[in-house]
Amino acid sequence: MDAGLTSGSLRIGLTGGIGSGKSTVAGLLALQGATIVDTDLIARQLTLPGGAAIDAIATEFGSDLIDAHGALDRARMRRIVFAEPDRKRRLEAILHPLIGTETERQSAAAAAPAIVFDIPLLVESGRWRTKVDKVLVVDCRETTQVERVVARSTWTPEAVRAVIAQQARRPLRRACADAVIFNDGIAPERLAGLVQALWERWIRPAC
Prior knowledge:
Blueprint: E1 10-16, H1 22-32, E2 35-38, H2 39-46, H3 54-61, H4 74-83, H5 85-109, E3 114-118, H6 122-125, E4 134-139, H7 142-152, H8 157-166, H9 170-175, E5 179-182, H10 188-202
Parallel strand pairs: 1-3, 1-4, 2-3, 4-5
Helix pairs in contact: 1-10, 2-5, 4-5, 7-8
């Protein structure tokens, strides 16, 4: 997912484990005036009906991975790539260049004081840390991650834990951070206040 990232805006890499509240923090940063480049959203758009990745996925994995509407059967593909790392790499080889191109396009068009690159696997990629000015990690306990995802989806606790097991460990993710927001057991107003305080610390001095 390489991108040029030539904008003069402060470049913030936002990451966190599944269920950490990363998307909520991204929304709060957007309210502060940041442009959000959501790589997971880009990946989903690429695999919708008519998406740029659909033909290549059908060729590589078979047309039975494409549903009746012409979109990627994400649940089935998720099961396949979790079970078969080689097939995961093949899927990434299709998606990552396309995600990188769209990420670069969106960042080049941004005119905000900060561009927030919402990257679930920032730490795992091994590349993004050198492409952003700051890394913000949203963190919480694993039990909280499981509870949140189960509450908002049809996933079982076992399925959530399987995803967590394939993501970077919490200590490693925090070690890569310039700032950590511990989003566990705090009120929404408190979370908004933490985001605002961080924004003022990182953005206001440069304005």
